[in-house]
């Protein structure tokens, strides 16, 4: 500390020898090297402050479209888009199919009811007149039931005596020799078959003629 006019004046670079404060607007000398180093640090901080999307955008802009890296990246992108589109189509197709055949299990459980009605009608020969009304009632019940399930897409497989055997919708459970029929024709229907909206739900079980 230096004294001036009986007053202690701190000598720390802010005051002159007379005790007056120096001009604050005067900038202190800073070495050019320090300034450059500080600027580089600031620029480095700004560079590392970029987001991931911004960095990827800069990389894409700096990659030549004709180089192998760019071509490979474009090929990967196209394959990914194609895979995503195929997956979307497959999911839509499976969803539509699921909706279309949603009642398949329920209708399949109802087929034995039709089988029993068909079986009852198949054994009506030789009944007396007193059972005639009963047979008519069973036949009407079968028709009503069949009409109801038809509204949900259930249709009978064409399996009648004299129809050619078709392994795509008929199942042979045995063979017979019938001179009235040609070879490989249906001689008898054991159990009816059904389609559900064009898809085979159950094949018709038949006896096939082998002449």
UniProtKB/TrEMBL annotation:
InterPro entries: GrpE, GrpE_CC, GrpE_head. GO terms for molecular function: adenyl-nucleotide exchange factor activity; protein homodimerization activity; protein-folding chaperone binding; unfolded protein binding. GO terms for cellular component: cytosol. Keywords: Chaperone, Cytoplasm, Stress response. Residues 1-25 are annotated as: Disordered. GO terms for biological process: protein folding. It is found in: Cytoplasm. PANTHER family: GRPE PROTEIN (PTHR21237), GRPE PROTEIN HOMOLOG, MITOCHONDRIAL (PTHR21237:SF23). Belongs to the GrpE family. Homodimer. Participates actively in the response to hyperosmotic and heat shock by preventing the aggregation of stress-denatured proteins, in association with DnaK and GrpE. It is the nucleotide exchange factor for DnaK and may function as a thermosensor. Unfolded proteins bind initially to DnaJ; upon interaction with the DnaJ-bound protein, DnaK hydrolyzes its bound ATP, resulting in the formation of a stable complex. GrpE releases ADP from DnaK; ATP binding to DnaK triggers the release of the substrate protein, thus completing the reaction cycle. This is Protein GrpE. It comes from Pseudodesulfovibrio profundus.
């Amino acid at each position: 500390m230096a004294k001036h006019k009986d007053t202690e004046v701190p000598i720390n670079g802010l005051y002159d020898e007379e005790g007056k404060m120096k001009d604050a607007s005067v900038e202190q000398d800073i070495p050019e090297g320090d300034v450059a180093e500080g600027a580089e640090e600031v620029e480095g901080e700004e560079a590392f402050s970029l987001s991931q999307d911004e960095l990827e955008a800069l990389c894409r802009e700096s990659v030549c479209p004709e180089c192998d890296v760019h071509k490979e990246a474009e090929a990967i992108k196209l394959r990914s888009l194609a895979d995503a589109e195929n997956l979307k189509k497959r999911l839509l197709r499976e969803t539509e199919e699921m909706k279309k055949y949603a009642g398949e299990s329920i209708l399949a459980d109802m087929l034995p009811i039709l089988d029993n009605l068909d079986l009852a009608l198949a054994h009506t020969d030789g009944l007396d007149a007193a059972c005639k009304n009963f047979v008519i009632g069973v036949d009407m019940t079968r028709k009503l039931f069949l009409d109801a399930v038809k509204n949900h897409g259930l249709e009978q497989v064409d399996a009648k005596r004299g129809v050619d055997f078709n392994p795509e919708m008929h199942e042979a459970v045995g063979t017979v020799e019938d001179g009235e029929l040609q070879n490989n024709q249906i001689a008898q229907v054991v159990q009816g078959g059904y389609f559900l909206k064009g898809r085979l739900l159950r094949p018709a079980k038949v006896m096939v003629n082998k002449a």
